[in-house]
Design goal:
Helix content: 10-25%
CATH class: Mainly Beta
Strand content: over 45%
Number of domains: 1
CATH topology: Elongation Factor Tu (Ef-tu), domain 3
Radius of gyration: 17 Å
Order of helices and strands: EEEEHEEE
Mean pLDDT: 86
Distance between the termini: 28 Å
Shape: elongated
Structural class: mainly beta
Largest sheet: 7 strands, antiparallel
Oligomer: single chain
Number of helices: 1
Length: 114
């Protein structure tokens, strides 16, 4: 089961998928004494890479979401078999025309608190 909701609207993924990414936020630097240091600020930051074939209506909807500062995202997590909800923003929206009215779209959903 593949489900994705952006601001409560289900994004049709009949010909699409998403991939969960877990990253971390870190600060690296050097102390006055010259030793290197790495401070892990936040681990396990959630992100989704999404690819789908969209009709023109869905493409326009995604373009609108790309302009918003924040989105409420819900997606089906296969490992827990639940809908996971979090706040994110859309980054890197790309659309390529396949045929008249059909688009290959891809984008990333990035944790807002990163």
């Amino acid at each position: 089961m593949t489900q994705l909701f952006l601001n409560g609207v289900e994004i049709p993924l009949t010909r699409g998928s998403y991939k969960e990414n877990r990253g971390h936020y870190q600060i690296t630097g050097q102390t006055e004494a010259g030793t290197n240091r790495r401070d892990l600020i936040r681990a396990g930051i959630l992100g989704l890479s999404v690819k789908l074939t969209a009709d023109s209506t869905t493409k326009v909807l995604l373009e609108g979401y790309n302009e918003e500062a924040s989105l409420t995202v819900k997606y089906y997590d296969e490992s827990t078999q639940t809908l996971v909800s979090w706040d994110a923003y859309m980054d890197g929206l790309s659309s390529d025309l396949i045929t008249d009215g059909e688009w290959d779209c891809s984008f990333n959903l990035v944790d807002l608190e990163q």
